[in-house]
Amino acid sequence: MWRVFYKLPRSLGVELVVLYAGDERELEDAFAKIGQLRPGGLVISVNAFLLQRHKYMADFANGYGIPAISTNPFAMAGGLMSYQR
Q1: Sheet with 68-70: strands ordered across
Q2: Cα 34 versus chain centre, distance
Q3: pLDDT tens-digit series, residues 29-72
Q4: Helix ranges, the chain (H)
Q5: Which of 78, 36, 25, 79 is nearest to 17 (CA)?
Q6: How many structural domains is the chain composed of?
C-alpha cells in the first residue's frame, strides 16, 4: 500500500517529502527543513507527541504562508483546514 502512496505524487508531477517528529528536536529539524523547502502545502498526520502541538504547528504554517491540513484541533488552533468530520 505504501508504494502506491509514494508513486501517486510522482505520477502527478508532485514531490512528496515525508518528515517525522516524535520529540522537540525532531520537530524543530522538520520545521527547519520545511522552511528551506517552502512546499506548496502540508498534510500533517499526528502522533502522540504532535497531538499537543496543534497551535504551534498552525502558527508555523501560517507564518510561512503554507497551506496546511491536519486534524480538527489543528484547524481550531488556526490551521487552514481539517481532514476530519
Answers
A1: 42-43, 68-70, 81-82
A2: 9
A3: 999 999 999 999 999 998 999 989 999 999 999 999 999 999 99
A4: 2-11, 24-37, 54-64, 72-76
A5: 36
A6: 1
Domain that holds residue 24: 2-82
What is residue 37's predicted lDDT score, i.e. its pLDDT? 94
Look-up of cell digits 508513486? 7
Instruction: Specify the pLDDT at position 2.
Output: 59
Distances (CA, A) of 4 to 9, 10, 11, 80: 9, 10, 10, 26
Rg (Cα) of the chain, in Å, rounded? 13
